[in-house]
Every structure is written in C-alpha cells, then in structure tokens.
Amino acid sequence: MLRIQEITKRTPAELENLVEIPKEFQYVWEDFLHLNATRQSSGFGVNPITYSDIKAYYDLNCIEPEVWEVQLLVAIDQKYLKLQSEAMKQNMKQKPG
C-alpha cells in the first residue's frame, strides 16, 4: 500500500492503473529515476537522456551494464518523453486563448 493510500484511506484516480515493476527490473527503474532527476531541459521541454549521461552514471557508480539494460533505459526514456509531450499538448489546449 502506498503512503497516500494509508493517509487518505482511498486510492487517487491517478494511482488506480499503476503497473507493478517486476522485482528483477526494479534496479533499472531506479537508475532511470536517478538519471531523470539530472536530465537537461531546453525552452521547449526536457531533453532525452543521452548515452553519455548513461555512461557517466554507470562509470560514477562503478557499474558495467549489460547492453539490454542500456536499451531498456533508453526505451523507458522514450516512453517518458512521449508522455511528457502529450501532457504538454494537453495543457496547451486547456489554456485560455
């Protein structure tokens, strides 16, 4: 149970369709969260996490990732960027003229 559910005794609509990340991939998700927290942005939104960013992160943490782990990070980031773009478009539609 999430902390918000414990406090409010209900599940917010935004949390009703959460996908559980398999335990075996949790560390890749955590790597993404660390990289996401340090990502660069432009005046037009967030920039993709670069391979240089990923390499630097793993080098600093003395980790030698498997190719599939890097590919998974990139895929997660692409999905994140798509969702961010869609949210920005939706917000622009809702702003008064």
Task: Give a short overview.
By secondary structure, the chain is mainly alpha-helical. It contains four helices and two strands, in the order ααββαα.
* Total E-strand runs: 2
Treating each run of at least 4 consecutive H or I residues as one helix, how many helices?
A: 4
Q: Specify Rg, calculated over alpha carbons.
A: 17 Å
Identify the overall geometry: globular
Helix-strand layout with pairing:
Elements lengths: L2 H6 L17 H12 L3 E2 L2 E2 L4 H10 L6 H28 L3
Antiparallel strand pairs: 1-2
Structural account:
With 97 residues, the protein is mainly alpha-helical. It has helices at residues 3-8, 26-37, 51-60, 67-94, and strands at residues 41-42, 45-46. The protein has a two-stranded antiparallel sheet with strand order 1-2. 5% of the residues are buried. The mean pLDDT is 88.
Keywords:
97 residues; mainly alpha; two-stranded antiparallel ribbon; 4 helices; 58% helix
